[in-house]
Design brief:
The complex is a heterohexamer, with three copies of chain A (245 residues) and three copies of chain B (289 residues).
Chain A: E1 29-33, E2 41-47, E3 50-60, E4 74-81, H1 96-109, E5 122-131, H2 136-150, E6 160-167, E7 170-173, H3 177-182, E8 185-192, E9 197-207, H4 209-238
Parallel strand pairs in A: 4-5
Antiparallel strand pairs in A: 1-2, 2-3, 3-5, 6-7, 6-8, 8-9
Helix pairs in contact in A: 1-2, 2-4
Chain B: E1 2-3, H1 13-24, E2 40-44, E3 52-58, E4 61-72, E5 83-90, H2 105-119, E6 130-132, E7 136-148, H3 153-167, E8 169-175, E9 181-190, E10 197-206, E11 213-217, H4 221-226, E12 229-236, E13 241-247, E14 252-253, H5 257-285
Parallel strand pairs in B: 5-7
Antiparallel strand pairs in B: 2-3, 3-4, 4-7, 6-7, 8-9, 10-11, 10-12, 12-13
The chains are: A alpha+beta (245), B alpha+beta (289).
Chain lengths: 245, 289, 289, 245, 245, 289
């Protein structure tokens, strides 16, 4: 972020973005629930070319007793990027960024999971970025919350996430990687939409207070749209209309 | 240290008996014949950031292979060749017994089996993967992701690898009149695959009560759990044996080798036919430039 | 893998109730108002081998920040800039629950929060940290040591970082007429800090019995142990928001955001005033050259 | 393997190999059993300049309970190369090759050990390559099976191993490193000779089906010779005629 | 050590050292006990510009049961250098030197701690070098023994340490880093002064027997002075005259 | 973190009493006098791929040392010198309590004791181990393998190291008239060992009942298990003290230092005599070129 290259033009003269979207428009979003055989729950999510595969195992008994909690389930979460998911091949060893995002995503899901229902168990959440084109953490939260639901784990609400960027002075919804790279700010947000509770909030970059409030409002618009798609995908899965992929 | 596996998911006794009963009648619990692979589904080109990618379902086993081709330095003993680097990750998504972390011995073994199957037969013409001889070559990173594990990861990985290689696109390299090297922006060249190669895996199941031994092609997970030994043999499309690996806790009687070799050759032919069918279809439906 | 913390030191129920009772009366157990930070004590220049160093006490939380500035290589995508590398170590001295070893996820997160708060607002003019453009630049290593942990490590670390940066000295670099680069023996130059930036952390405490929510500035350890969520917002001295991070096991209601933003802005202003006070005093008492 | 250097001549005009052997001839083989004081069993094996020291501890109770199996012993096996054993100094950290070979060698020994005799115990097998000149994995299996016998662990049969190479078109028994490096194929085989059960089978390189069968036959010839030497070494050890080295 | 640079002059014509000390003179020594809130015991020690922070936790119950001993406390000790403590930034990963010194320092403290008093517990000792200017291990022992005392752990005696160097042929007490670097020998010594028991003794460099005995005598002089300062610092701490730093 | 050893193999009480009884009578359980080492057996040149190798039995303790000499880069502060890198591995073969994996603290300590004993006294003339001054030097890797552990690994390792160094062969380096460096194919040069050095270890055993202290040379494993402290002193053949290390859980009374120093000096002389005897015999029996 923040590498301003004067030659790069990120908006057409009509105010459309490099991929043809309006500033407040999401990318095409694809959601499939229950795509894996072995996992207790799974989901596949695309935000444009950002492609995420999430799986959930649990509640289950891990090998290690000392990580169990007497009054709730222990959540474990891994956010990881496939070596082939990025422009330059990524080493499979977890980077500092992946370590941080695993924590941020876990803490975006903790408020939604009714962890009190499963004391002395572990719920494992695995998020794999198959292709990265911006917004991987928020798409990851969206996918993981569906995988949790698919695993039958009771939740206060689904969690839906999206990022808002500031690009050449303009706030844009669901920015892609190029917009993120040349933009001035990235505000990823995830929330339980019905409860209007924000579970993930980060800012990378610089915003005025006014811009921040506008960006947050834009994020809510996106979150509400994605939430609708999440519910449709779950309905589709449990209507039995579709076999798993 | 390598250790006898202690975290194998356990198969219910009743299911085990069912599998053995079917085998004793000359068929398999999923109604396959001994030498038939499961259904194969293929997709390619699903990872935009990869140079090549494929997704293969072998029954319910799902494997994703992604290829990245990047400039690198040749090894001192092969200055005129590109490099091939094969890695395997068992995604924790794929099985309740897979844990995240550095590849375990099975993943390392699998990567090395795939690597060896390709390397010495020169399935890829690495001498064509050179940018500046002795100085700069292409690194071909093949990353194999086991996404859902329902038995026979090796063959699924091998098929996925071959498909990703066959559909990968890399930048064209050209030389100007003044000898300068130009790497084109656009990815339009194929990886020079000279020979298609696949592995074919045969499992041995022994009925402890009767002492009967059964050899079956492309074992499913529940068959693998009962099998005591696997033999994987790699074949090139012109019929050469390009690799071999016995694995598992038991052994193979010397007299049974011809049977296994014949079964695996036929299995490899089926896999190769499937790969050819997919590639032909893809080529005929993709407009040429 | 990130995991729900299982080794949190437990707060006695009676103490927890005391904290909640105070909050319900509009004050805090240590007699602070909701928006007041703890007392801040500052020392700088205590590590002779460091280019800059500071020691900050925020209440009983103690943080030591040391800066080393060393020649390095620029990153390919920023050839005209120095590098900033922020690391955090939770010294095992600091808490019975900290263990020696590589930084855990909280230390990594803290380092990245500090890093982000500085980077995009260009708090440091990295373009001035170049020795030979494209070839040799200054690496600024900021190592933050949490020495005693009594809550709100983030803000203590942020204040310490800013003070270490403001008081650091680096060698002067000059160019001879023939274009040769000379790095002076003596450390006399400042790091080009263009804007002061601090983080300000607000904790949310929910009384499970009444359902009341309280937002308090600069939580102490016992308040943190009761809090379900923290929100950290970074501000530059000219009032821009330069970073934000929600952490903890719970969430923040959308309607509460403005309240948190206002509280954290005021808290940041207090921190910045303290930093300015210290630096002004130091500059006025240090004879200029 | 497979690096064809046109200048290199690996056979004399008389058809002998660079070290003077006929194609079907083993290198000089030296076997000593019981060479260490502390180990429960040990053996030292040379195939020419390939030198292996194997030790066995067990059946024993490891610290970690979770690796025990209720119905059999757990085998653990490490194949490792000394830093000074190779032409260029080898880093002591285990390479991917060593990780694979530790597994392959363990699985070459598992069929021979009567693991049912020692439930809830561990048998540790340590194979150290002191000098590497080709055939280290098969010499390692030969040595480890003797160390197991020396430790008094009941076995169905000894395991003996040897590799067959294809070098400039000719199948050769027990190839050395130079033959391996410039050869076209390497087929390491280990077996329980009396039972004619193959416990290790790998192929690195390319063979026709016909060549494979011939190579396997040649491997059996070598294995049978080595098996005889193994039994002699054990006899010598237990005849008490020799003190430990 | 031992890098003789002819141009470097480490003594004035009057026989004083680069920092103005006589050969048998300690650097200014600063000792504070009880400087941390959370640790059970802590101490901060300066030998000139060598600055050490030590903390002790215990006797306590660690997570891992298998490290407990039935008849005594288990001591754990970490000697670590801050990245900013050295001339060139030090990687925070433990070096081989730090691994060795952690052991040497633990074994310098073991004889003093009455470990029999706390069976089945662990005592953790953390020594952090904040700034390194020679003598860090001996200053570390001095600080750690005070932190143990501050934690209320019964001891046979305090342990005080100091190094003696041989610099351009002259034995010097408490050498700083520059003297160490250009000197011919470094003899760090720690002891329980009242008992005259030596608990740490190392020699890096070359000494004749005669020089060794003289150097050891000089070390004793320093140790006795430091011991006095240790006792004063403890008195000051427990007289209650001073608040923690 | 360094930790009090908790996995020491335990010695039976009756055996412990036997050892103490012998000591109280002025002799040792294996009939040695207090100042005698165990029998020493030596082999060299057993690892063809190493530049030098030795195998030393000190009683039943067995150590293998291998030396590899390879071109490398000098350290910035010693541009005119080759590099010496000493590593120690406790083979899991050697003891039921040794586990495979990265060297533990005892192995690291042992390697550093050997290294220090050689380095400052300049036992090896590293200034002769230079290929191209400032650019390319020889790296001397000494890898010490403890193969069977029956006490006093330090001295066994030190003797093995010295023998491997004395018998190692490295390529001859010559310079052509045009200044080009030629590294000969053949290994014919010796490593320039200027002084022989060995460590000599004395153990202190305290009889808890009588309070008697015994100092004994070259402790066996069962003696080590009873000993509370070891003192290792390195001597060069010209009588200088070139290193010293106290280890173990107890301390040494100041008054006992001269006794220990004298005992270790005599022990070192015996080791050196053994080394000289071996080398002389070897040289006289090896035909010179």
């Amino acid at each position: 972020m923040g590498i301003l290259k004067p030659g790069i033009k990120l908006f057409t003269d009509e105010g459309l973005r490099i991929d043809g979207r309006r500033p407040d428009q999401l990318r095409p979003i694809k959601i499939e629930v229950g795509v894996l055989k072995n996992a207790d729950g799974s989901a596949y999510v695309e935000y444009g070319n950002t492609k995420i595969l999430a799986a959930v195992y649990g509640p289950r008994d891990p090998g290690a007793r000392h990580i169990l909690l007497p009054n709730r389930a222990t959540l474990r979460c891994r956010y990881h990027m496939a070596p082939f998911s990025t422009h330059e091949r990524k080493s499979p060893a977890p980077s500092r960024r992946e370590i941080e995002l695993s924590k941020v995503i876990r803490e975006a899901l903790e408020p939604a999971v009714i962890v009190e229902a499963f004391p002395r168990t572990v719920i494992d959440i695995f998020i794999e970025v198959l292709n990265a084109d911006g917004g991987t953490r928020t798409a990851g939260v969206t996918a993981a919350s569906l995988a949790l639901a698919d695993a039958g784990i009771p939740m206060r609400d689904l969690v839906a996430g999206v990022a808002v960027g500031k690009v050449q002075g303009i706030l844009v919804l669901d920015e892609n990687e190029q917009e993120d790279m040349y933009g001035e700010a990235d505000l990823p947000v995830a929330a339980m939409p019905t409860l209007r509770e924000i579970t993930l909030l980060q800012l990378n970059g610089v915003l005025t207070e006014e811009e921040f409030y506008k960006a947050l409002e834009l994020a809510w618009q996106g979150i509400n749209q994605i939430y609708k798609l999440q519910k449709e995908a779950l309905k589709k899965r449990y209507a039995g209309a579709e076999e798993e992929e | 240290m390598s250790m006898t596996p202690v975290e194998i998911p356990i198969i219910p006794k009743i299911r085990k008996n069912a599998i053995l009963t079917f085998l004793s009648r000359g068929t398999r619990v999923d109604e396959r014949s001994f030498d038939s692979p499961r259904e194969i589904n293929i997709k390619t080109d699903l990872i935009p950031n990869a140079n090549g990618s494929s997704y293969v379902e072998l029954g319910k086993t799902k494997v994703l292979a992604g290829i990245k081709v990047e400039p690198g330095t040749p090894f001192p003993d092969t200055p005129q060749e590109g490099n091939l680097i094969v890695s395997v990750e068992f995604l924790p998504h794929a099985s309740p017994v897979f844990e995240p972390g550095p590849p375990d011995e099975r993943a390392v073994e699998l990567a090395r089996i795939i690597d060896r199957s390709l390397r010495d037969v020169r399935a890829i013409d690495l001498s064509k993967m050179v940018i500046t001889p002795g100085r700069k070559v292409w690194n071909i990173f093949i990353d194999i992701y086991v996404v859902d594990y329902d038995g026979n990861m090796i063959d699924a990985s091998s098929i996925a690898t071959m498909l990703a290689l066959l559909t990968a696109k890399i930048p064209k390299v050209s030389t100007t009149e003044t000898g300068e090297i130009i790497i084109s922006e656009e990815k339009s060249e194929n990886i020079p695959v000279k020979k298609k190669v696949v592995t074919a895996t045969i499992a041995k199941i022994t009925d402890e009560n009767t002492g009967n031994k059964y050899y079956i092609a492309d074992p499913s997970l529940e068959e693998e759990m009962i099998a005591d030994t696997l033999v994987t043999i790699a074949f090139s499309e012109d019929g050469l044996i390009t690799g071999m690996q016995k694995s598992g806790l038991s052994s193979i009687h010397s007299d049974d080798i011809p049977k296994i070799l014949n079964m695996s050759r036929k299995l490899a032919e089926k896999y190769l036919a499937k790969i050819n069918e997919y590639i032909t279809l893809k080529t005929s439906t993709t407009p040429s430039i």
